[in-house]
Amino acid sequence: MLKQFWERFTRMERAGMTASLAMVAFLVVTMLAAGCASPATPTATPMPTSTSTPTPVPTETPTAPPTDTPTPEPTDTPSPTPAPTVTPNPDKFLGNIHYQGRTPLDFAQYWNQVTPENGGKWASCEQNRDDMSYWGWLDAAYEYAKGNGFPFKEHTLIWGHSSGQPDWICSLPEDEQLAEVEEWIRAVGERYPDLDYVDVVNEPLHDSPCYEEALGGDGETGWDWVIRSFEMARQYVDGDLLLNDYGILNNARVTSRYIEIIRLLQDRGLIDGIGVQGHGLENTPPRAIEINLDALAKTGLPIYVSEYDVNIADDDEQLEIYREQFPIFWEHPAVHGVTLWGYVEDEIWKENAYLLRSDGTERPALEWLMEYVDGTSAP
After folding, report:
1. pLDDT 10s digits, 176-209
2. Residue of 203, 282, 317, 345 marked catalytic
C-alpha cells in the first residue's frame, strides 16, 4: 500500500507541486493509510473498491483520442464546403440562342454568349435578291450581345439547307451565284464589324449548297468550295472563323472525314476553331464523346460545342444525361465554350429539350447545370 501512495506522491511531484508541499501530502496520506489499513488478507480476495486505494483514472493521461470525438468526422461535422469538382471558368462561355428577334426569358441569368437561331442565315436576311431589308432578327441578337458584353457568333454564312440558303440563288448562273455569295458575306462584315465568332460553313458533310460549283466544287482537294467560302470570309469578316457540323461526337468515321476538311483549312491559315453540334447525343456513350473530342483536339484548334440539347421529356432522365455528358465538354481542355440550342418551353427546336418551363420554373437539369458551372455541384 505504501508503494501505491509513493507512486501517487511522485505523480503529484511531476504535476508541478513543490517538494515541501509534496512531502507534506505524502506524510498525510501515509498516516491515513496506516490508520485505515486492514490486516493482511489473502491475495485471492483483493478489495478494489477501497476508497483509500482508488483505481487510477485513465482519462488523466489518455493515450488516444476519446471515443466521443473521433477524427475525422465525415458525417457529423464535415469539413467546411469541400473543394468543388468544377470551379467557375472565365475562359469558357455557356451560351444559348437568341430567338426570332426576341431575347428569351431570363437570358442573362443563365447564359453569357449569344447565337442567333435563324436571324443570321442568308435565307432570313436576303429573302429576295438584292433586298437586304430583313436584318431585324440579326440586329436584335447582335445588339443584345454587345450591350451585355457577351461574345456573339454569327450563324451562318454558307449552308445548303433550305432554311440556310435563299431560294432565288439556286436558279442563277454560276458567275452570278459567286457574285451574290461574295456580296452577302461582305454585307455581313460591314454591318457587324465586331463579330467574335462566325460559322462560315455549316454542315458541309451533310448539306452542301446549290451553288457549290460556283465556289469551285470538289476541285483538287475534294473540298474546294469550302476553302473558297473561308477565303471570302477571311477577306470580309472579322472574328474567329469556324466550321460547324453534326454527327461528329458520336461517330469516329465522320470525325475523321471532318478532320480532313479542317486540315485543308489549317494548311491555308483559314480556320480558327472547330464547331461540333450537340444534337442527337442522348444515346451516345460518354466514352465515345471523349474519344472524338480528343481526336479533334489533336488539330490544336479550340473546340466549340454548338447546338447542344437533350430532347427527353422525363425530368430525371434528362438530368441524368446532362450529368453524364456536360462535364465531358466543360472539363475538356480543348473545349472553349458550349452553346445550348434553346431552353424555354415552346421556344425551342426540339420539343422536349427545354430547361425552363413557360411559367419560369426550372427543370432539374437546369438547376444542376447552374450549380455545376458555378462550382457548387459535383457531376
Report:
1. 999 999 999 999 999 999 999 999 999 999 999 9
2. 203
Q: What DSSP letter does each residue of 217-279 carry, written as one string?
A: -STTTS-HHHHHHHHHHHHH--SEEEEEESS-TT-HHHHHHHHHHHHHHHHTT---EEEEE-T
- List 117, 180, 212, 307, catalytic entry: 307
Q: 307 an active-site residue?
A: yes
pLDDT in tens, 257-282: 999 999 999 999 999 999 999 999 99
Structural domains of the chain in order of their starting residue, each with its CATH number: 1-37 (no CATH), 93-373 (3.20.20.80)
Angle at 190 (CA atoms; ends 189, 195), nearest 5 degrees? 45
Can the peptide bond before residue 75 be classed as cis, meaning omega within 30 degrees of 0?
Answer: no
For 102, which DSSP code? B
Active site residue 203: yes
CA torsion 18-21-27-29 (nearest 10°) is -90
| Distance between CA atoms of residues 111 and 105, nearest Å | 11
